[in-house]
Amino acid sequence: MASSIENNNEKLTLKSSDGEEFLVEKHVALQSTLLQNMLDSDCSSADVIPLPKIDARTLALVLGYCKKHADASSSKQGELNSFDSEFLKDMDMGALFNLVLAANFMEIKGLLDIAAQKIADTIKDKPHQEVREIFHVENDYTPEEEAAVREENRWAFEGFP
Amino acid sequence: MSDLSHPNSPSPTDSESDGESAHSGYDPTYSSDEPMYPKRQRLCARIRKAAVDLITALPESLLLHVLSFLPIEDAVKTQVLSKRWLHLWTYSTSLVFLHDSDKSVSDFVSFVDRTLVLCNCTKLKKLGVRFAYEPDYASNVNLWTMFAMGKGAEELQLDFENVPWEIDEEVGYYLLPQLLYSKSSFKVLQFSKCNVMPKGVVCWNSLKKLSIGYAGLSEDVIQKILAGSPVLEILELYYFYGFNRLHISNASVKKLILRDFWEHNEEVEEEYQIDRYLSMLEVSAPHLHSLEILGHLRDKICRLGDVSSLVDANLNFYMEIYHSYDNVSYVNMLRGLLQSLVHVKKITLGTLAIQVLSIMEAKGLRSPLLNCEFLTLDTGIWKPVLPGIANMLESSPNLETLVITTSSSNYDACFSDACTELCNFDEKSYWTSKEKPFMCLTLHLHEVKFIGLGSYNFDFHLSFAQFLLKNARVLQKMVIDSKTESCNWPKEFVRAARKLLSFPRSSPNAVVLF
Asked: Which of A26, A142, B62, B120 has a CA positioned 20 to 30 A from the CA of residue B194?
């Protein structure tokens, strides 16, 4: 891996938390503000850039997104939009959260936004019991407390179950 | 009860340790020593267990980011999820209130009032409101606007739909408070059905994008706004009236969108319909890069002054046509527009403009010679537009890319009667009868795209494609993008595709893609 960097300045190697290495073209990596800043400073001389918070599965997804957006910059926005919606389709919540964390860490605004939007869409219009189930949120209110929250904020819940 | 009134309120800036500990808690794959795949089953069970409170594992800054994509009603409701969520939503920096027509307007207004009172964020990014405004709520909306200004909002959107006093806007519209004009934190402003009337100096020093719709705007008001918006980049006006001249001297303004002119004084119009006087709108903006004139221009004749920096022009508009044969003013208008666009690299024309070009072709009037390299024709291909297309190809010797998009309203009649009568030709053999090839086909045209091709008038598209394949010597690819429709008519599509592939090509490198 390291030798391929020396041979080709246009590529760099990223290492996931579980030790897998990804060889990435530079213009693809530049979709990430974090990597861009690292490349702008001296860090680019490092052989391998470790990403200790991102597992291989997530990193592969992130790089897939970056590649599409880096290569398609000149093509139509509509094409990218349909790629984006296809990209997150059928993705389970765990993967989605990992993606949000990774996009946030690597500072990839577009990916962060579509992943956050996808999570928001899942919560939208759902009664809170259901939202709790979807996200496995543990309700730490006592029944009295919950009733009080609802009572005091009745204006917000009118018309909702 | 006491612990509810003293919640461990989240800090708007993400507390690192909190996010960190929760983070390592939910995803066991992060403890990297463990081999992942052999123990998959056990791991799955662990993930499931760790997945408890999965969303709560996100740091607060990210949860707020998720909340900012929720309609505000849903964001407010998240307070019952758990204690951590009780006050989280109040730090949301984006508040967008959209009225749902199932609910009463007064409920909506009090919902906005109460929500804003609870808002804890120190700096607001966006406040947006859309509802059927009534004058009774002026003081409420004033407070909301003041709130946005007080919180240093970057984006304010006041979108008032269904105002019942549409005709007499002076009475029914919300009058923007004068203080708003001197607030320099705004980057994006959008006003729909608001009265925009600055009395003093406008001071929108950070404003990048301004959009005003359903409004009467005087030349004076526009100049005041432009003078007070030194970094404005995008100006959009839709359903507007009240001025005949738009001069933008700001070097920062790169994009102008004029969409749907407002037919004012409708009744008077009808009385004088016969010897109707077409009114004029003159646009000049020497620094503009992109200009879009879209939608219904009513009876406005557009003229362009200095647009010398323009690279992209979209003339996908239609107009009131009282008599198909009375077309001199339209011909003059289009010739004038094209004359002003001779240097522009990217041009989009709608079906009306192309039909006017057909009339010009029939009268022997060429479009001025254009520098256009990228041409988009938003029209169905049928008889009344064929000579217009030929006219454009003839006048664009440098054309490299041609896109034909065919959306639904593309067969508007416009001048079709006049075109059909003036253009005495057999539409079936129109292209094969063109003996002299266009210069752009010989020299530059390397990409052709048909987008949204439907089965309607398919043969017209086919014979045009055949003509292009036969004559475009340097063509590299022709793309037929019919994603949406092809499933409805697979048989015909396959037949057409076979036919298309069998056409002779003059360029050795040309590929046809579906």
From this structure: B120
Instruction: Please check whether residue B221 is in contact with residue B196, taking contact to mean a CB–CB distance below 8 angstroms.
Output: yes
Q: pLDDT tens digits, residue range B309-334?
A: 999 999 999 887 777 667 888 889 99
Q: Which long-range contacts (CB under 8 A, 24 or more apart) does A27-32 make?
A: A27/A70, A28/A63, A28/A66, A28/A67, A28/A70, A28/A71, A29/A66, A30/A70, A31/A65, A31/A66, A31/A69, A31/A70, A31/A108, A31/A110, A32/A66, A32/A106, A32/A107, A32/A108
Provide the sign of the torsion angle of the four alpha carbons B420, B422, B426, B429, taken in this order. negative
Its pTM surpasses 0.90? no
Of B77, B82, B102, the CB nearest to A157: B77
Q: Which of A92, A135, A160 to mutate to test the interface with B (most CBs of B within 10 A)?
A: A135
B 15-44 residues inside an 8 A Cβ radius of A: 23, 26-27, 29-30, 32, 36
Task: With residue B338 as reference, give the H or E element that holds it.
Answer: helix B328-340
ipTM over 0.90: no
- Residue-level pLDDT at B46: 45
Within 10 angstroms of residue B497's Cβ, the number of other Cβ atoms is 15
Per DSSP, the three-state class of B362 is helix
Cβ contact, residue pair A124, B71, below 8 Å: yes
Pairing status of strand B126-131 against strand B155-160: parallel
pLDDT higher than 50, residue B25: no
Which of helix, strand or coil describes residue B67? Answer: helix
Whether the pLDDT of residue A119 is over 80: the answer is: yes
Residue (of B348, B215, B374) closest to B293 by Cα position: B348
Kindly tell me if the per-residue pLDDT of B338 is higher than 90: yes
CB contact under 8 A, A138 and B53: yes
For chain B, give percent helix, strand, coil, nearest 5. Answer: 40, 20, 40
Which residues of chain A from 17 to 56 reach within 8 Å of chain B, CB to CB?
17-19, 53, 55
Query: Which tokens hold the place of A147?
Result: 């009733």
Q: Point out which residues pair with B450 in neighbouring strands.
A: B404, B480
pLDDT of residue B410: 57
* CA dist., res. B156 & res. A141, Å (int): 36
User: Residue B212 in contact with residue B229, Cβ under 8 Å?
Assistant: no
Which candidate in B43, B55, B103, B117 is best for mutational testing of the A interface (most A CBs within 10 A)? Answer: B55
A156/B115 CB distance under 8 A:
yes
The confidence score (pLDDT) of residue B460 equals 83
pLDDT at B83: 87
Q: Give CB contacts under 8 A, 24+ apart, made by A18-24.
A: A18/A55, A18/A56, A18/B29, A18/B32, A18/B36, A19/A56, A19/B32, A20/A56, A20/A59, A21/A48, A22/A56, A22/A59, A22/A60, A22/A63, A24/A63, A24/A66
Q: Averaged over B301-311, what is the pLDDT?
A: 93
Helix axes A56-71, A109-123, angle to 10 degrees: 110
Q: How many CB pairs (< 8 A) connect A and B?
A: 126
Residue B89: HSE in the Cβ half-sphere, 13 Å Cα cutoff: 26
pLDDT computed for residue A50 by the predictor: 87
Please work out, in degrees rounded to the nearest 5, the angle formed at the alpha carbon of residue A26 by the alpha carbons of A20 and A29: 60
Contact A148 B55 (CB under 8 A): no
What DSSP assignment string belongs to B204-257?
A: -TT--EEEEEEEE--HHHHHHHHHT-TT--EEEEEEEES-SEEE---SS--EEE
